[in-house]
Design goal:
Mean pLDDT of chain A: 93
Low-confidence stretches of chain A: none
Strand order of the largest sheet of chain A: 14-13-12-11-7-10-9-8-15
Structural class of chain A: alpha/beta
Number of domains of chain A: 2
Shape of chain A: globular
Helix content of chain A: 25-40%
Oligomer: homodimer
GO molecular function (chains A, B): nucleotide binding
Number of helices of chain A: 9
CATH superfamily of the largest domain in chain A: Dihydrodipicolinate Reductase, domain 2
Domain Gfo/Idh/MocA-like oxidoreductase N-terminal (chains A, B): 5-114
CATH class of the largest domain in chain A: Alpha Beta
Radius of gyration of chain A: 20 Å
Number of strands of chain A: 15
Protein name (chains A, B): Gfo/Idh/MocA family oxidoreductase
InterPro entries (chains A, B): Gfo/Idh/MocA-like_OxRdtase_N, Gfo/Idh/MocA_oxidrdct_glycsds, NAD(P)-bd_dom_sf
Amino acid sequence: MTAQKIAIVGLGKIAKDQHLPSISRHDGFDLAAIASRSASGLDVPTYEDLETLLKSEADITAIALCVPPQVRYDLARLALEHKKDVLLEKPPGATLAEVHDLIRLADENGCVLYATWHSRHAMGVAGAKAWLAGRTPTSGRITWREDVKHWHPGQKWIWEAGGVGVFDPGINALSILTEIMPVDLHITAAELTFPENCDTPIAADIDFQGPKGFAMKADFDWRQTGKQTWEIEVETTDGTILLRDGGATVLIDGKEVSSDEALASEYDGIYAHFADLLASRTSDVDLSPLVHVADAFMLGKRVTTEAFYDEQ
Amino acid sequence: MTAQKIAIVGLGKIAKDQHLPSISRHDGFDLAAIASRSASGLDVPTYEDLETLLKSEADITAIALCVPPQVRYDLARLALEHKKDVLLEKPPGATLAEVHDLIRLADENGCVLYATWHSRHAMGVAGAKAWLAGRTPTSGRITWREDVKHWHPGQKWIWEAGGVGVFDPGINALSILTEIMPVDLHITAAELTFPENCDTPIAADIDFQGPKGFAMKADFDWRQTGKQTWEIEVETTDGTILLRDGGATVLIDGKEVSSDEALASEYDGIYAHFADLLASRTSDVDLSPLVHVADAFMLGKRVTTEAFYDEQ
C-alpha cells in the first residue's frame, strides 16, 4: 500500500501534541505539507494558508483540519472542492447546518469526510460499548471537571461565540456516551454558567432522559483545580460500569477490567480509522454529540458568574 | 374514503384558532375527541389527558399535538407507542435529539409522523420556491418584527427555557427560507437579546452564509408595536423576490404577483398535506428550521436588555 500524502492545516496545540506524532507513527500516512501562519523548524514544506498549499502540492490527497471550529467550514469546503479527503478535529463545525452542507459536498465530489471524536478511541470505550449492548440502563452520571487554565492556556477562541466553552471538553464525554449507550437519550433541562466577560459557558449541568424512566445527569466544569475528573457511570439492571480517566480505565461493579486494546494514544486510533475509511472510500460523520451540545444551548437556562481571566 | 378519526391534545390558542376550524373544513378528518385540562362546551368527548383518551377511544387513528414544545415529546412517544399517527405543531420538539428519537419510533411502529411548519403553506411560498429554483441568489434579508403582547398574551411558556422566545415566530421565517432557497445556508454569527428576567430571547440578529459569497441577515424582534412586518427578500442575478405578510404576498422586482392557490388558511394546507401523508403512509419531518434555531443558540452572542412584563 502506498502511503497517503496528507497535509495538516492549523499547527496549534492539538496538531503538535497529537496529530503530528500519530501521523508519523502510521505507515499509511506521509505528512507532505503544513498550512500554518506560525509553523517553523519542521522538515516538511510549509505554506501561509490552505489555498497556497493546494496550488503547490497537487499530489496531496488528504487534509487534516486542526483549526478552531469557527473557521473550519470555509477550509473544509475549499479542500472538498479540490476533491481532497478531509479529516475534521472535533467538534466538526461551529454549527450543525454547515456540517450537513459538508456531508452533501463530500458525497457529491466522491470525497471521504471523517468527523473525529478522539475520546471514542480511549482504551475502555469499545469494551464498555460491548458490555452495555446486552443490558438495560436505569440511571447514570457524567462528571467531567478539569482546569481550563491548565489545558487551554491562552486559547482565546474557546471563550468567543461559537467556541462552545466547557462543551469543548464536555463534547468528549458526549462522544463516549453516544457511542456506548444502547438507547438514545435527549436533554430535558440544562443550566449553563457564563462568566460575565465571556460568550461561552464555564460550567454546565445537564439532565438527560431515555426510554423506560432512564435518567442521567452530566456535570461539566472548567474550574476544577487539583485532581481532574473525567468519569461516566451507568447503572443497569445487571451491574454498574464506570469509565474513569476519560475512558482509559473501566470498572465493572467496582473492579477494574483490563483492556485487550493496546493503542499508544487516542489519536493513533483516529488515524487507524481514517486509513480504513480511505481504503473503503467511506465517510464517517456522526453528529449526535454536537446535536446534544446544540440542544443544551437551545434548551438551557443561563446563569452569570464572576469574570474569568486566563492569566492571574 | 372514510374520514380519519383524529384527536387534539392541548386546547390552547393555536388549537382553537386554527386546528379546530381546519379539521372541521376537511372531509378527510373527523374530530373524535380532545384531551385538555381546560376544554368545555364542545360537542366531542373530552378527557383530562392523552392516556385516558387512548384508553377510552380505541378507534382514533391520528393525534394532533398542540401543546407547548417542552411537553410534546412524552405525549408523542405515548401516541406512537399506541400505534397512532401523529401531527406535531411547530417546533416539533424542545430538542433535536428527541425528534430524532420520535422519527425512529414512528418508523419502527409503522406510524406516520408529520412535523408541521404552517408558514410553508402561506399563499406565496410554493410560487416563490418555483421562481427561485432556476436562479442564483446573491443576497437577502429577513425582517420578522411583531408585538409579542398582541400575539402571545399571557403565554408564560415562551419565556421559559425551551420555549425559544422570539424564535417561536422566527422559526416560521426559517421554515419558509429552508423551503424556498435553492441552496443550503448556515449561520455564521448571531446576537441574541435576552430580557434580564427571561430565559429566552426577545430579539435576534442573525448572519447567514451560502455558496459563492451569498450572504443574508435576519432581524427577529418581538418588540414591534404598530405595523407588523414579516418579510423575506432574496436578490438573485436575475431579479429580486419579496415575500410579504408572512409569505401571503409575493412581489417580483417590485410588482405584486397573484397566486393561483386559494387555500382558506395555512392550516387548511397542513391538514390537506396530512391527509396525503396518511393516504400514502409517509412521514414528513424536516428538521432544518429547528437546526438553524439550535445553531443560533449554540453560536450566538448573548446580550441582556431591560426586563419584560406581559401585563403593563
